[in-house]
Structures are given as C-alpha cells and as structure tokens.
Amino acid sequence: MITPELLHTIRGKFAHVEACPFQGPRVFFENAGGALTLNSTVETSARFAAIPDNQGRDNPAAHALMDIIKDAKAAAMEWFNADNGQVFVGESGTELLFRLIRTAVAGTSGGILLGSTVEHPASRSAMAHWADKLGRDYRLVPHDDALGLVTPEAYARVVTPDTKVATILHTSPVTGMGMDLAAISAAIRAVAPDCFIIVDGIQHASHGLVDLQAANVDGYVVSPYKVFSRHGYGVAWVSDRLTDLGPEQLDGGPQAHWEFGTRDTGAYATFHDVVDYFDWLGAQVGDADTRRGRIEDAGRTIKAHEKTLTDAMLHGTGNLKGLAEMDGVHIVGGVDNPAREGLVCFWADTHQAADIVSALNKEGVRTHVRKADHYSGNILTPLGQTAAVRVSMCHYNSPAEVARFLSVMAEIL
C-alpha cells in the first residue's frame, strides 16, 4: 500500500512533479504521453554524456562501460522476467517494433500475419508495410468497442494453423485498458504453436508487471520515456528463436547480434535506474528477498494505487462528483472496467474535447486530446467521436490531484 508518507517519498524521486519548468505549478495527468523522469536517470544521463570512451576497446574506461551494460542487461532481464533470449536498446520503441516485426515477417514464408484493431500504429503499420511489400495476408482481430480492448476469445476465432506472425498490444494508450496477454498468447499457440508473437508493451510498462515467462511470446518492446526514464532510446527483449531467424547484421560482425553501431551506455544505465526504482519501491511495500520478488511487489502496489486514483476520478471523492456522475460525460471503455490501467478517456456532450483540455490547462491541470486520426481513429471512429479527453495517471499522482481535476471539471461543465 502506498501511504501518504510513502507517496511523499516517491514524489521526491521524480523531476518536475508539481511544476512545469515552462508553465509553473501544475498537475501532471499526461503520463501516457511520457511519464515523469526519475531524478536518478537525469543524473545518470549527464554523467554518461560526459564520458568520451567507447565500448570494445582495451582500456579501463571501455571495460567499465561494458560491465555497466552487462549489469543493466541482467537487471532488465529480471524486470521482464525472461529466462532466455536477450535485451538490447534501439532508437525508440516504435523503431524496435518495426525491426522485430520485419525480422519475423521476412524470416517466415506464406501463411497469415495477425494483429488486432485495438493496436497502436507502431505495430499495425509495420505489419501492414511488410505484408504489402512481401505479398502476405494480413488479418485483424476486431476489438470490443464497448470495453476498449481485444479478448483472447476474439483472437481464438480468427487465428488459423498457418498463422506465422502475430502482434498483441498489451495496454491501449487511448482506452487505457490492458489486454490479457498470457491468455491471448495461449489462444494463438493453441492453434499455431510455432507462431512468432511480438508485443507492444509501451503503454503497459509503467502500470504493473511484465512477466515474459507467463506471456510465452517472442518479442516485447518498451519506450523508457514512458516508464520513468528519458527520451532517445527504446528497449526490446527478443527470444532466441526470433534471433535464430537472422536479423540484419554486419558482415563479419558478432553473430546473433541485434545492435548496430556504438550503443549509448547511458541508455542502458538509465534503464538500470528504472529497475532499481522498482526494486526500491518493492522493498518499501513488501518483504521479498529477491530483486524479482521486489519488482513484483512494486507492480502490484502500483496497480492498486492507480485503481484508487481512477476510481476516485470516476466515482468522486469527498463532496466532488466523479466523471461518471457528471451529466453528458461518456467514459471510453465503460465506467467499471477491471482492465483499466491508470487512464480515463472521456468525451462530453456539451463541450469539445480540445476546449476541455485547454480549459484544464489554464487551471494548471495537464491532460491531452486524442483525435480520430491515424493514432486514435481505430478507437474513436467506431464510437462516433472525432476526439476525446485523455487523463492519464501514474502511481506518483495523488488523490489531492484527482480532487483538483474534478473541481476544475465541475467548473468547466
């Protein structure tokens, strides 16, 4: 449980919690666009940006850099709960999804490529691109518009024995709903056991556990700027069998190697800071005696605290009405949806979404408008909406901040 005292300590570990360096005091409910950054990752970034040495040389600095990368990869493997495969960094989460999907599609022949209509274009665009280039059959599993998610049963109805590559979105950045990753993977493998399964975990990463042993997939991608680190890199885990397909490599270079060029040691080091933070939080709320155990305790605590926040936002707190009680307000994915992960998306009959976001911002409450464009049209267009307001929280947000949001919303409406 995150007590008020622990929440105060947690907030002290993040930069710009209560104030924007450009706007001044504000409530930060735009975490789905990029979470707050750990102070430790800011310090680590500056420290490594100043180091002139590269890896792979025979000198003390290069040896130290290689050790830092090795330790960071080991920490990331525990965070992913992966017992095989490898972790590596790339340009961004989107770039990594394209690389993994390209390797899987190009490394298989014939058969079906399978995704779902709930997915972000990071995975859908990659699958569509290579299906077109290589003449493959790309099929989409329809998501449930009312629930804002895709179910294992929906995948089971569409998957066929000749499905070669499948993609899964772990959590939607528009609806905020998490998919049952392990059950969807199991539904695919029950029909197509050798299918390569690649997961977009970018939105999910900050809201709870990643458990790749339970998921039984071949690739999982996160964007560290959405899980308390910084912009400028992505992190991917890949299975050994995906690597065996042969990703692009330099002629004569290391085999089974996914990285191109000299990697930023600071990227690895800042992701190690993220794992260290989960480790620390787990120690505050549980008594596990292993790093993975503490990471699991932290994940469960994060999920519970964020449910408290979203429940208050939907159903009210103190004498303030929740969004679900406000006339003319409609909640994407429904009000009482157990799949919700720290995010509430809504529209109002009497006010344009952009106007609500602007009015909230003027009162120091940062949210975001999602438009029915190439990013969110797959969710909003079937609902008959051109835009919606996204309010996205993380575990460092407070009940008082939710109350501030509801107070301003009452004035706006």
Automatic annotation (TrEMBL):
The keyword Ribonucleoprotein does not apply. InterPro entries: Aminotrans_V_dom, PyrdxlP-dep_Trfase, PyrdxlP-dep_Trfase_major, PyrdxlP-dep_Trfase_small. Pfam families: Aminotran_5 (PF00266). GO terms for molecular function: transaminase activity. Keywords: Aminotransferase, Pyridoxal phosphate, Transferase. The keyword Transferase applies. Residues 28-405 form the Aminotransferase class V domain. This is Aminotransferase class V-fold PLP-dependent enzyme. It comes from Octadecabacter dasysiphoniae.
